[in-house]
Amino acid sequence: MAYPATTAEFKARFARDFTYGPGADRVMDGDIANAMTDANAMFNAALFTAADGKTAFLLAVAHFVVSNIQAAGGLGTSGGLGIENEAAGVVTQQSVGGASLSFMDPPDIVKKSPSLLQFWKTDYGRKYLAMVTPRIVGAFGAVYGPKAPDTSESPDVPFADY
């Protein structure tokens, strides 16, 4: 399957977020290509329109760029904001005296899914989640079936024979 975006589109979308180029302190085209492969494995294009899909895919790629670089030990210098993106959560409370820090819990739909939970770790991933989670909550409705038999008089009456 072809990716819904290219490396050039990624660089244009995140021009101020990352420092691109060769070297250990930059995001290289290979880093973006690897992140596109990771994002493609998680991305369901059928959930989005073409325009929304491109944006969502690029956010997922940015998440994987950050995650992959952090997993490799980071870039060491002050490359770009995306490289230093905190792999944590949404801070809800900070303190100085006693050094306390509290993080927001992810929503249940995210918390219960290992596939989605990984996106909670970066700012880009949380933006991706904001786009994808409303699209994966299915609509449901009641379906009427046969009335269950009254088994109070005869508990041996099977449901299928009613």
Provide the descriptors you would attach to this structure in a database record.
single chain; two-stranded antiparallel sheet; 162 residues; 4% strand; mainly alpha
Number of strands: 2
What is the CA-based Rg, rounded? 23 Å
Q: End-to-end distance, in Å?
A: 51 Å
Helix content: 40-55%
Described by strand count, sense and barrel closure, the largest sheet is: 2 strands, antiparallel
Give the ordered list of helices and strands.
Answer: HHHEEHHH
**Overall outline:** elongated
Computed structural class: mainly alpha
The low-pLDDT segments are 76-82
Give the integer mean of the pLDDT values: 78
Question: Tally the helices: what do you get?
Answer: 6
Taken as a percent bin, the fraction of beta residues is under 5%
How would you sum up this structure, described in words?
A hairpin with a 6-residue loop joins strand 1 and strand 2 (101-103). Residues 76-82 have low confidence and may be disordered. This protein has a domain at 7-88 and 114-136. A two-stranded antiparallel sheet has the order 1-2. The termini are far apart. The chain has six helices and two strands. 40% of the residues lie in helices and 4% in strands. It has helices at 7-13, 29-42, 50-71, 108-111, 114-117, 123-136; strands at residues 91-94, 101-103. By secondary structure, it is mainly alpha-helical.
